[in-house]
Amino acid sequence: MTQSGIRKWSASRIILVVLVASVIAGSSVGFAASTTAKYQAPQTREINVFSYTLPFNDTLYRLPHDVFYPDRILVYKGDTVVIHFFNIDNGTERHSFTIDAPYNINIDIPPQSHPSNATFVANVPGIFLYYCVYHRPTMEGYMEVLG
Amino acid sequence: MLRAGATLLMSALGVIDLAYGSLYAGGNYENIWYVMGAIYIVFAGITALELQPWLFQPTVLGYSLFLFSAWLTSGVSRDPVAYSDKAIEIILAISMVQLIRISRSPDPVS
């Protein structure tokens, strides 16, 4: 298209062309910016989870005094999650870090000086209970997978 | 008269965008606001001097519609300053349509 060609365009024609081109280009940029802002690239999230004993008499209250720290885990769908589970119990009690289907994670360990690990891809969004098979209902937490 | 009004609107948009970048954006892509404001200021100068209107009038129209569409679809900057800015942008686009019509009519009056 030559310069003199564009000069000869009618007002209606040039307004129409500019309007359509600008709205398409602007909307594309806007949608792209919106999508980029919302998109969270999958990443590896290493999470340390500890067993922890609350200072009360569990026989008196008839409840286990063991809990998880932390008791909330937040990840995004697609993240690779690495759980490092530490059983730091002073005695000999076993603890587990267990998540049922669809993740099916079970780390069951005695007190030890190093963590035991589980790695999985959080590909199902939702809220999932994690618990110790020996110390429910107090030793429970939630993993939230944002989709 | 219409050209003077359009120049005024572009200057206002330039000032608002520059101020928004420094006062409101707060590290959130403030450079984009500076660039958008600077472009409006340059266009205001070009329009005031009536340089190549056959080229710059459609360019200003396209620029204002481009920014408005991008703002509308991106979902960012929903605050009174941005709403005012976009309202002025629409008035500017309407003014530019009128300017293009007048300058391309067989007997331009402005």
Based on CA inertia axes, which overall geometry of chain B fits?
A: elongated
Low-confidence stretches of chain B: none
* Greatest chain-chain contact: A-B, 21 and 24 residues
Classified in CATH, the superfamily of the largest domain in chain A is Cupredoxins -  blue copper proteins
- The SS-based structural class of chain A is alpha+beta
Ordered list of secondary-structure elements with their pairings:
The complex is a heterodimer of chains A (147) and B (110).
Chain A (H helix, E strand, L loop, with lengths): L2 H5 L3 H28 L5 E10 L4 H4 L4 E4 L2 E5 L3 E7 L8 E5 L5 E5 L6 E6 L4 E6 L8 E7 L1
Parallel strand pairs in A: 1-4, 3-9
Antiparallel strand pairs in A: 1-2, 4-7, 5-6, 5-8, 8-9
Chain B lengths: L1 H22 L6 H20 L3 H22 L5 H24 L7
Helix pairs in contact in B: 1-2, 1-4, 2-3, 3-4
Structure write-up:
The complex is a heterodimer of chains A (147) and B (110). Chain A folds into 2 domains: 3-38; 44-146, Cupredoxins -  blue copper proteins (Immunoglobulin-like), CATH 2.60.40.420. Chain A contains 3 helices and 9 strands. Chain A is α+β, with helices and mostly antiparallel strands. Chain A starts with a helix and ends with a strand. Helices cover 25% and strands 37% of the residues of chain A. By secondary structure, chain B is mainly alpha-helical. Chain B is 80% helix and 0% strand. Chain B is built from 4 helices and no strands. In chain B, α1 packs antiparallel against α2 (30-49), α2 runs antiparallel to α3 (53-74) and α3 runs antiparallel to α4. Chain B starts with a helix and ends in a 7-residue tail after the last helix. The chains are: A alpha+beta (147), B mainly alpha (110). The interface between A and B is medium-sized, with 21 and 24 residues.
